[in-house]
User: Fold this.
Amino acid sequence: MRQHLLGFTLAPLFLLTSACSQQEGVIDSKNTETLSAASTSLNSYEKAAQLKINKLKKLMAKAKRKQIDVTREQSVVWFAEQFLKFANWDENNYDAVVKLFSYERYYKDKKEQLAKDLPDFERKKVIQILDKGIDDLSKELAGEIKRRPVNKVDWQNTKAQDNMFVSNGKPIFLYDYFSKTVGQPLTNKDIYNDHLGALYHGGEDLYPVDHDRAINSFLVREDGTFDEELMKELTRIPDTNIGFLVYWLMGIPQWVEEREPEVRKGRSLFTGFDIDNPLAREVWGKIIRKTGELTKGKKVTEVGFVLANEPHWYAEKGHWTQNFQEMTSISSYTLNKFRNWLRTKYQGNITKLNENWDTNFKNFKSVAIEIPIDPALKGLPIWYDWTRYNMDRSTDWFTYVQNELHSVNEDADTHIKIMPRMFMEDSRSGGIDTEALAELTTMVGHDAKSFGSENIRPGKSSKWIEKYAYNWGIVAMFHDFMESVAPNKINVNSESHFLSSGQWRDLDTRTSYVRSVYWLATLLGMDANMGWFWARDPDGSPEDRLEGDLDFFDPGLGGAFAGSNNMQPHVTNEVTQVMFDLNSFSEEIVELREQRRPLRLFYSETTAINIDDYMSKGYALYEDLFFEGFPLGFATKNIIEKQDNSNWDAILVYRNKFVTDDEFKTLQGYLNNGGTVILDSEQSLSLNEYGQPRKVKLAPGKGKLIVMPKGSDTKAIKKMALEQVSDSLPDVSITADNGEDFKTVTWRTVKQKNGKYLVNILNLGHGNADIELSIKGSKNVNIKNLMTSNKLKSTFDIPSEGVLLLEVTPN
Assistant:
């Protein structure tokens, strides 16, 4: 088989699940009940659906005559017709569907019954979306509701501006699927359209078909020339639709391995070579410059270049990535660069390093380290130095990659598909400095995910479900951090796992969840979303990579299909419907999210490297503050030094015992300039990066320094923090009664130029919440639901996973 532009593909979520312990035969009882319900004859549901399609089409014709926008209904009909076709394919190809269910161990034990029930399940869900479409349009025709027309994406002419995409003069939120069915031309309207999204991009492909346009190592031959046939797969992309391109770093040519035997040392899963290897850098420099030149000014780069897919270099013993032979050693190039890094860090003083590490190296050339490193060393200087260096070397690699691109195409936008776990989880051995990379690239990139139901893997926690309908926190905290670091950059989620992943899926996923999580992420900064994944060919069959024998590679890709949106007309339709609604109110959403963040949580990578629970404990405080009606932010050394300090009222320092001298000086400088700092205890900031006591303490300077009493809990800390930002809290006040002793309703508000208030409310809890809304200094308020144009009283309820966008007028 000839090497294709994307020589190999394995979605990361499946490799993660392969690393987990297996438990077969686990099945979701709710799904089993839904799918096992006795069905009538084959054609009864399809006949019912066809009648409803005809009814909706007649309503649409009537609505058009009244000049009512029917964009939403057009997608309902399209998805209904597509999934009826898919259901018939699934029914006529029972054995193939059984095999698809068998690839996912969560479904394997019930694969035959699931395959039998799937076609009618899909038909019933088609009826469900048609019923809702008929109901909504009937209400609008009757004057019971009035919806704003959809602001459709101009897939040909949308432009990237400083911090948003703009289509037809208005902000626009892009949507599509990162991996789309291979073997289909970009001109196929059944794949690229307003319903599924129409971004042109380098798809993932394992087999030699003509769809793959990801850029990989095999473009360059040993003699330095380019494989022109492979290059055509890039150059023949039509210059019609906007899109994005991916630098796929997984493979490396055999000739490079022969010339550089160490080139695989220190590799990770999706970066299949040593990033410190000079020949690997030379090869990729050539590729980047050539492809940057060829695509300069092309529409397919409007959403940027993805510089890497989920980069990570976990270098600690016992980490799950070692199951895939990641970072089992390091090359001589990496070691020598580490030695040079140490020489600079210790100012050429080997004695100082030996004292710090408790070693006896003769000079920096003789410094050695065992990789993978023992996690028992966490908190010691050797752990800090390696972990910090591992981050710095990856930042150096991406700086090189971006510089090569910008040397030939200075206007090229860039982002990296950063896994949120690199920030959200306590482990810091992965070699990714989330802040540094967000600062480096011209756009913010990631693949944020959520959990809509319990984790399906044994031993994995779903503690969040005790309070919340879905795991919103991993979306919210990550977005708030990235938006704090790079508030003026476009935010691209190039492989969202909001709908399913290796750790969760629910065949009967709630449409309310889909609406809420997409709304939340967009409200918190997401400008473009490419979901995982669309794998149906227009005839209903799974894409090429899912047909036949998947033993050619890890069957995880096949496991992705079962229980995914490819079997869920209600889910796939709802993604498009919520994006239509978000784009209808794009200007309002931008107003809500471009607000000042009055309270900043201090974040230190230094402490994160040194202790075991920095992020998990920090998240608990973030969670408690999230439901107070204003946007949270973060502060770091760089944020304080580079951004306007008047953008916040106070910085809260919580559990930051280890900070560098530079971090400490930055906080002191902020106080000297009149800032407010809240310390959770006297122990905060007391040690440097090596655990050595700091001789000085923060002083108020011209500012305000508040040190909490010893033993203060998070409630006391939160109370003090809210007092310090009280003047910046919104005029609109919301009281939410959910019947619990914890909060689940989050809201944001902004005062508009006309004196009215824009209010967004999300209920993230399991049950209804009773809402009472008021405005400071106003006895009464007038409230309009912008989604329906209907009036509300000042007291109303919001269901679980409900989304409200209100216009509130003081009376």
